[in-house]
Each structure stands twice: as structure tokens, then as C-alpha cells.
Design a protein that fits this description.
Length: 342
């Protein structure tokens, strides 16, 4: 009896042997689902579309500068305006004019993605997102959604697990757009006191700090300008190497310089656009629809998201995201009616 009692460990030995094997098998299946064939090629400059980020405090001229740069790029311009109609204030700035899509709350990443696709379908050459900050801090933005989910579930970490894939999908929509993209962001504002070299007196100056957006957003762009209240741009990051170490006022010539750099290179695409295999997509959809909890849904959608974006297949990502949203709504409705442990 004593020997039998000593071996009754509540299933720990079973988990160590069988459970770990199942976990390894599941992780291996996930790796196989997301892995694709590698391709090695010589580094080659190819034509590209602009991905420009700009941040600055109020009054730094983000919208004005974005419009001038877009005009320098040429073609039709479309602006996604989240700033309560401020985009219309510059209607007389450009002879050719530009189109406005006014985005109102809720500023969810999904609505931003819909607005981006609407602009693409309208035939514009350059999309200005003015501003991207609302997708992070605005009503319905990622911080707002994370807070509400955390308040409901009591689990801040789980809330981020739901919000992060939505934010990542918006970033992918910006990066994969067939249009040039210029995204403005508000910057945290700080006042500093310094000595005026001409008068010798102490003066107060307003400066902009990091963009009000998720940390690291600057690294997603080809080039990133930080504007001050004198409308001068400091180049925080520049893969084009056109503006390294420069401080300047952005304008039409800035757009023309960027366009010349973007169009230098081969027309041959790096890779043919790959589309997700139908059987693979069906398996991912089934995994999402089988989820019996938000945690299971998060795990299933994480695999689906990585698979779709690694191709990239934006159509498949949209279908998988819709399936995730539908399943999430069903799980939340069930929990509301029957309780968490139903």
C-alpha cells in the first residue's frame, strides 16, 4: 500500500512522459505549419514604395510637410484624416488637390486597415495617415482596448495577447500597401529652458520627444523624420542615406529626392507574391473555430497570423482575422450568458 501511495503523484509522471511528448508534437506541428522554403539570392536594389514616418508636437507642421512630400512624389494623394477635419484646412496648398477619408472613432486597427484598403482601391498613389497615433491612444485604439479587456478579465497580460496581433496587422497593412505611405504621429511634448546666444537671456523652448505610438514603431519605416516647432526635420532613421545627419525643412524637393532613390534599381520583384495553400488555410480556420476559450483562440490565431504574414498573403490574413473576430465574439457572448466556468 505504501509503495503504491508513493507512486500516486497526481499525474506528474504521466505529464513528464506523455504530456511533454504531446507538447513537443504540437510545437513541431506549429513549426511545420509556419515554415516555408528558404531562398538565398544576391542582394539587389529594387524599386520600392516609400514608407515614411514623421513625428512632432502640435504646431510642428506634420500635415503640411506630409502633403508637400507627397506632392513631390507625384500622382494622386489620399489622406486618412483622424484629426477632426484638419486635413481640409490645406485644401489650397496643392494645385492638383488631394482626397480626404475622414476616420472617426472608434479608432481600432481594423478600421484603419479598412481605410487603407479603401484608399488603395480608389487609385491613389500616396496614402497619408494623419495621424497613426489614434490607433494607439485614441478611442477604440490599442491602449483603450487593452484596458477594457483587462478590466473585464482581470488579466492585463491576456489582454495584450489579444490586442498585439491586431496592432501587428495594422503595421503589416502599412508595409504591404502598393502605395507610397506617409504616416504622421504626435510626439510627447516637453519644455526646456536654455540660453539665447544672441541676447544672453534664458528662453523657454518646446521640444518633441518620442512618438506617441507603440515603442519601436520608427524601425518599421524606411525613413523617419522628427519635426520641431520651427518645422525643421531631424532624421532619426534613414535607410536611403539621403538625409543622414541633416536638419532641414521638408518640402517638395524632399519628395522628389525620395522618389529618385525609390525608383533606382531593378524592376524584377524579389519574390513572386505567394498565396497560402487552401488546405493549409482550411486547417488554420478549423483550429480557430475549434477554440473553446480566449487563450486557445489566441494560440490558434497567433499561428495563423504568422503563417499569413510570412508569405505575405493579405487576403488570407483578412479571412483568418474575420474568423478570429467571429469566434471571439461567440466566446465572449457565451461567457456573458453562462459564466466563465460554464
Amino acid at each position: 500500500m505504501d509503495e503504491q501511495a508513493n507512486t500516486d503523484d497526481g499525474g506528474l509522471q504521466w505529464f513528464a512522459q506523455i504530456g511533454c511528448l504531446e507538447q513537443i508534437e504540437n510545437e513541431d506541428a506549429e513549426r511545420k505549419m509556419t515554415m516555408g522554403a528558404f531562398e538565398i539570392h544576391k542582394a539587389t536594389r529594387r524599386r520600392a514604395k516609400l514608407r515614411l514616418g514623421m513625428s512632432g508636437p502640435a504646431g510642428s507642421g506634420k500635415t503640411y510637410s506630409a502633403l508637400l512630400i507627397a506632392a513631390g512624389l507625384g500622382g494622386r494623394i489620399g489622406m486618412i484624416d483622424t484629426e477632426h477635419g484638419s486635413g481640409d484646412l490645406y485644401a489650397d496648398l496643392l494645385t492638383e488637390g488631394y482626397d480626404i477619408l475622414r476616420l472617426t472613432p472608434p479608432f481600432t486597427p481594423a478600421r484603419y486597415i479598412e481605410a487603407i484598403h479603401a484608399m488603395e482601391e480608389s487609385g491613389v498613389s500616396t496614402i497619408i495617415v494623419d495621424s497613426l497615433t489614434h490607433a494607439w491612444t485614441g478611442e477604440g485604439g490599442s491602449l483603450d482596448r487593452q484596458g477594457k479587456i483587462a478590466d473585464k478579465s482581470g488579466n492585463s497580460w491576456q489582454a495584450w495577447r489579444q490586442v498585439t496581433p491586431e496592432h501587428n496587422a495594422l503595421v503589416e497593412a502599412l508595409l504591404q500597401s502598393p502605395c507610397h505611405v506617409i504616416a504622421t504621429m504626435r510626439a510627447k511634448t516637453e519644455y526646456v529652458q536654455e540660453k539665447d546666444e544672441r541676447t544672453g537671456k534664458q528662453v523657454v523652448r518646446k521640444i518633441g520627444l518620442a512618438p506617441i505610438m507603440r515603442d519601436g514603431i520608427e524601425y518599421e519605416f524606411t525613413t523617419f523624420f522628427e519635426l520641431d516647432v520651427q518645422h525643421q526635420a531631424y532624421v532619426g532613421k534613414d535607410r536611403t542615406r539621403l538625409f543622414d545627419g541633416m536638419i532641414f525643412k521638408p518640402g517638395l524637393d524632399t519628395g522628389r529626392q525620395l522618389l529618385e532613390w525609390l525608383e533606382t534599381g531593378s524592376d524584377e520583384p524579389l519574390l513572386d507574391k505567394r498565396v497560402m495553400d487552401e488546405e493549409q488555410k482550411r486547417t488554420l480556420l478549423e483550429s480557430i473555430n475549434r477554440a473553446n476559450s480566449l487563450d486557445e483562440l489566441f494560440n490558434a490565431f497567433s499561428v495563423a497570423y504568422r503563417t499569413a504574414t510570412s508569405l505575405p498573403d493579405t487576403a488570407a490574413l483578412a479571412e483568418l482575422t474575420k474568423a478570429k473576430d467571429d469566434k471571439k465574439a461567440a466566446l465572449e457572448a457565451h461567457e456573458a450568458v453562462f459564466g466563465e466556468h460554464a
